[in-house]
Design brief:
Strand order of the largest sheet of chain B: 3-2-1-4-5
Protein name (chain B): HypC/HybG/HupF family hydrogenase formation chaperone
GO molecular function (chain B): carbon dioxide binding; iron ion binding
Largest sheet of chain B: 5 strands, antiparallel
Oligomer: heterotrimer
Family (chain B): Belongs to the HupF/HypC family.
Chains: A alpha+beta (351), B alpha+beta (84), C alpha/beta (447)
Number of domains of chain B: 1
Radius of gyration of chain A: 22 Å
Shape of chain B: elongated
InterPro entries (chain B): Hydgase_assmbl_chp_CS, Hydrogenase_HupF/HypC
CATH class of chain B: Mainly Beta
Organism (chain B): Ideonella dechloratans
Number of helices of chain A: 9
Strand order of the largest sheet of chain A: 8-10-7-11-9-12-13
Low-confidence stretches of chain A: none
Radius of gyration of chain B: 18 Å
Order of helices and strands of chain A: HHEEEHEHEEEHHEHEHEHEEE
Largest sheet of chain A: 7 strands, mixed
CATH architecture of the largest domain in chain A: Alpha-Beta Complex
Shape of chain A: globular
CATH architecture of chain B: Roll
């Protein structure tokens, strides 16, 4: 009698597809985790192989936690994919609190039939984004839903970060007289994604701005006194307009923007004209809004511009008193108008 | 309104189609309604169709009219009847 | 963008504004209607009104094809998707237009399929909210957004087993592409493609505004001194169709492009016509509009479509000879015939003032619903439906003008009281102040 060694056929990352077994918790699940997720995300906490990760919290710090669900069509777009987007989005949410992101979790909902090749591409993109950001994915989960019950892949990521005692950055801190800064050009992600929609299909050189902004935040916070940065926020869904309206409401103030100062790429402008969309409502994935005290505005702007992710940063407006909490804009034309909340989903228009 | 924009014809394609450029963004549109459109022409694009040609000379003429106005404005003294 | 950016120059706008203020005679009022939503949008978005003198008022006409689409037509499109199982293709603009509440109830031919109290309860629950294309989609209707009529045809080719209906809306600008796809579907012998034709015509509607019996009821209030004529519509139909109108009604018409400088130049040309007692058709948009228009586009429309005797416009009611339908030769592609649809008009909210606002008799803020129950997120009337509607443009861009400017002193003086110095005007009541973002009252903006 001979002893046969266990042989498990490796996953076929060329032709293979996700099936229900991959989510059932048995051997197939383990194999997917070992051959794909553990290999790609590899770090000490994950290597322990436990259901959770143990993390240290240095004294004098508080924990910040943020979570994000990612659904996007198409999954791959110029400049990125759902994988790196899910890392950047959560790292940024933690960073916007003024915290240093330290760890991420990732939860995958896969649709039966999803090509393993695409999944591998997404997971590797995620791993690369996490490594580049220096924020490890320390725990995760995978579930599979039947065909027709998902859109290929949904990813939920949760991030933890360390916030030094005494730091208070938030949407309610903006005061009249403060200066509104934005770290770069607006609408790039929104246009990059729209250009890939089958029904719209246009060609441009615009790529998504998806990026982790925590080093930019760190540079900004290091350059100005504690308390001078009132609010940080990344204008993702709903765009600049909606994010500023949120802050105006939270802080009980109004804002006045200057249209001529908004950094917008010409091709993004053109695509918006073509589709009848307003760039102020398009999503950004690698930009932040900083509301800062007037006396540090110049330093803050120079610091943002000195960082590769903030090279096109601009001062775009000021916070003002306003009982109605309007965000308004002086138009390039010399007029004035309200910049309202987004109403519904921005749909391409013909008229 | 009917959203329509002047775009430059980059290339004529089979089946009454053409590739047009608008500020660096390129899109394939139908030129069935403007069969006379040639490469280099500016067409006005609405719902994926070129609905008319733009006349560059007339555009210059309109702009010149604005410029004239500017010149006459500079000469004129303070405008009367202006809103306060 | 060439031929776009040059026409948005703020410094030039100031110059044209100064010229308008210099030439507009102080002793008289100027009331001009811009027919097109495109002009309304440009005026609101760029703040053009602030460059105009106080006695020159812009009134927003019914020129937004989404706004004037009556509820009954949206109901038809939704019905085709929900009750007939058709794939309905539509431009993104119509997705949020409110439809009838009753449509959310049980299907007429499948009433109470389950029977029993559960079905009853379900029906009652659903009746509370009105549908829209977007909400119908959430209820399982196969509604697809397209960017071009040609995309609808593509979908029909991809799904030979399904009925595919293109919900065709728009003015003369958008009509030729629809006619083209119908022609092409006929050539290909497609058996599953049809068009719900809701294309409307502009010259008839402009005349209707001055003609309608309702106009009598408002008397002089509806008096208009001239029209800023359609831009892109005129590329297709030319400037000639407005000549009879200008002559018969003795109203000047200046056709203008949709960029803000175009609008301002047209206003200046209108002021000059009024001052000189002329009523002619002038063309500011010569770079795209000729007297004759686009022959190729007119030919394909004439081949496929014909005039309807009458068509309902939201906010205006039935307007004679103001819309198109498919010719009998193309009946197989006419969704109304193919599915035996009957048009059922649906009334707007009773307190909705859209009819009066579209004629310039009232302003958005005169309407009780404005900004309260009627907002862009929950539009009740046509003027709030699309961002080009008079109410939506004012709500989205100009409503800061309705509010008293923030001030440091507490406002204690009773409003309108006597003997307490100049009273704080209430913008919702004063006829001179607090109006539509796009239409007037530039003098109240703190400068």
């Amino acid at each position: 009698m001979t002893t046969r060694t266990d042989y498990i056929r490796p996953l076929d990352f060329k032709q293979g597809r996700v099936d229900m077994n991959h989510g059932a918790g048995g051997r197939a699940s383990l194999q997917l985790i070992e051959e794909l997720f553990a290999r790609a995300f590899d770090n000490p906490a994950l290597r322990e192989g436990n259901d959770g990760a143990v993390l240290d919290v240095p004294p004098g710090h508080r924990l910040v936690m943020a979570t994000d669900g990612h659904v996007i069509s198409p999954l791959f777009f110029p400049g990125g994919d759902i994988g790196c987007l899910s890392v950047h989005g959560t790292v940024n949410d933690v960073a916007m609190m003024g915290a240093t992101p330290t760890a991420l979790s990732a939860s995958f909902i896969l649709e039966e039939g999803f090509p393993l090749a695409d999944l591998k591409r997404i997971v590797e993109s995620m791993a690369a984004a996490a490594r580049e950001a220096g924020v490890p994915i320390v725990t995760g989960d995978t579930k599979v839903v039947e065909q027709g019950h998902g859109d290929g892949v949904f990813i939920s990521t949760t991030g933890l970060g360390l916030l030094p005692a005494g730091r208070n950055i938030g949407g309610a801190n903006a005061r009249p007289g403060d200066v509104v800064l934005v770290s770069g050009t607006l609408g790039d992600h929104g246009v990059a994604v729209l250009s890939q929609r089958e029904s719209l299909a246009f060609d441009s050189e615009v790529v998504s701005d998806t990026a982790a902004l925590h080093t930019l935040v760190a540079a900004l916070l290091a350059a100005v006194p504690e308390g001078a940065v009132r609010t940080l926020r990344d204008p993702t869904r709903g765009g600049l307009a909606t994010t500023l309206n949120e802050i105006a409401r939270q802080s009980g103030v109004g804002m006045m923007l200057d249209e001529a100062l908004l950094p917008i790429q010409p091709q993004v402008d053109a695509a918006c004209e073509l589709l009848g969309l307003d760039v102020l409502y398009l999503a950004n994935e690698g930009k932040l809004i900083a509301i800062v005290a007037p006396e540090v505005a110049d330093t803050a702007l120079a610091t943002l511009r000195a960082h590769p992710l903030g090279a096109k940063a601009a001062r775009i407006g000021t916070v003002q008193e306003d009982p109605h909490h309007f965000v308004q804009m002086r138009t390039r034309f010399g007029g004035q108008r309200v910049v309202d909340w987004l109403s519904g989903e921005p749909l391409p228009r013909i008229c | 309104m009917c959203l329509a924009l002047p775009s430059r014809v980059v290339e004529r394609l089979p089946d009454d189609q053409a590739l047009v450029d608008l500020g660096g963004v390129r899109k394939t549109v139908s030129i069935a309604l403007t069969p006379e459109a040639q490469v280099g022409d500016y067409v006005i694009v609405h719902v994926g169709h070129a609905i008319g040609l733009l006349d560059p000379e007339e555009a210059e003429r309109t702009l010149a009219l604005f410029a004239e106005l500017e010149a006459s404005q500079a000469e004129a003294s303070q405008p009367t009847g202006a809103a306060t | 963008m060439k031929y776009v950016d040059e026409f948005r120059d703020g410094a030039l706008a100031q110059q044209i504004g100064a010229r308008i203020r210099a030439e507009a005679q102080p002793g008289r009022d100027y009331r001009f209607m811009e027919f097109c939503g495109g002009h309304t949008h440009a005026i609101a978005r760029y703040g053009v009104a602030e460059l105009l003198p106080p006695h020159l008022r812009m009134i927003h006409g019914p020129g937004c094809p989404v706004c004037v689409l009556p509820i009954g037509r949206i109901d038809q499109a939704i019905g085709l998707a929900l009750e007939r199982g058709a794939i309905v293709c539509t431009y993104g603009d119509t997705m949020r237009v409110p439809a009838s509440p009753w449509r959310a109830g049980p299907l007429p031919n499948a009433r109470d399929p389950l029977g029993g109290p559960d079905a009853q309860r379900q029906v009652r629950g659903l009746q509370d909210s009105g549908l829209s294309m977007m909400k119908a989609k959430a209820r399982g209707a196969d509604i697809r957004m397209v960017y071009s009529a040609a995309d609808a045809l593509k979908i029909a080719r991809q799904h030979p087993e399904r009925e595919v209906v293109f919900f065709a809306i728009g003015f003369e600008t958008t009509t030729p592409p629809t006619a083209l796809v119908v022609k092409q579907a006929a050539q290909e012998g497609l058996k599953n493609f049809s068009v719900l034709c809701c294309h409307v015509l502009t010259p008839g509607a402009i005349a209707h505004i001055l003609d309608a019996p309702e106009a009598q009821q408002w008397g002089d209030a509806v008096a208009l001194d001239g029209f800023v004529g359609p831009a892109h519509v005129s590329i297709v139909i030319g400037s000639a169709p407005y000549e009879a109108f200008a002559r018969d009604y003795r109203k000047p018409v200046v056709i203008a492009g949709f960029e803000p400088l175009d609008v301002m130049q047209a206003i200046l040309m209108l002021v000059r016509q009024v001052n000189e007692g002329r009523a002619e058709v002038e063309n500011e948009f010569t770079r795209a509009v000729s007297r004759e228009g686009n022959h190729a586009a007119q030919a394909v429309v004439a081949e496929v479509l014909e005039l309807r005797e009458s068509f309902e416009w939201r906010g205006l009611g039935e307007v004679a000879y103001s819309a198109l339908r498919l010719k009998p030769a193309y009946a197989a592609f006419d969704a109304e015939k193919r599915f035996g649809l009957n048009y059922r008009p649906v009334a707007d909210h009773k307190q909705c003032e859209c009819g009066a606002i579209l004629r310039g008799v009232k302003r958005p803020t005169d309407c009780k619903l404005f900004g309260t129950v009627c907002t862009p997120d929950n539009p009740m009337g046509s003027c709030m439906v699309s961002s080009e509607g008079a109410c939506a443009a004012h709500y989205a861009y100009g409503r800061f003008r309705d509010m008293a400017p923030p001030r440091s002193l507490p406002v204690a003086a009773p409003r309108g009281g006597s003997g307490s110095g100049p009273a704080e005007p209430d913008p919702r009541q004063s006829p001179e102040l607090g109006t539509c973002g796009a239409c007037s009252a530039p003098n109240q903006i703190p400068t």
